[in-house]
Amino acid sequence: MAVAGVVRSAQAQETPITQAQPPLPTASLSITGRAGTVHHFTVELARTEREQEVGEMFRTHLAPDAGMLFLWPTPRESDMWMRNTLIPLDIVFISQDHRIHAISEDAIPRSEAILSSEGPVGSVLELPGGTTARLGIVVGDRVSSSAYGTAAHDGRDGPADGPGK
């Protein structure tokens, strides 16, 4: 069963999500293209299962240089959806080596269509819809963030209840 952006089992479902979550802690993130162009973002860090379940749900605005980074404790195939998400998003699937593995551009608000990474990834980045096309961000570009130094991302001592498929 899919819940709030991440495919989950029925056991993982908690109380219904009816409003946006408060802003989460942030980190800087940059994406470097093959030509060396660097794009800078400030991203909220969705680390806990509940933060990942809620994601960008019910938010009505996302600044052009903002986003949300979902950090998995171990690489996994990631399936996302847009239920209760009111704004279009670009879903950027990032491999364990911090390169863009796949992009789902302009995901449709409120859609329950599954957006899959089509292979294991270490994290997922949500950006405002149209950002990747506007900036020329493509598969293979390199992603850097101070968030990648955390245990929740590299699998050491990370949360045992991380999302999964």
UniProtKB/TrEMBL annotation:
It comes from the Bacteria. Residues 153-165 have a biased composition (Basic and acidic residues). Pfam families: DUF192 (PF02643). Residues 10-27 have a biased composition (Polar residues). Residues 1-27, 146-165 are annotated as: Disordered. PANTHER family: UPF0127 PROTEIN MJ1496. This is DUF192 domain-containing protein. It comes from Oecophyllibacter saccharovorans. The lineage of its organism: Bacteria, Pseudomonadati, Pseudomonadota, Alphaproteobacteria, Acetobacterales.
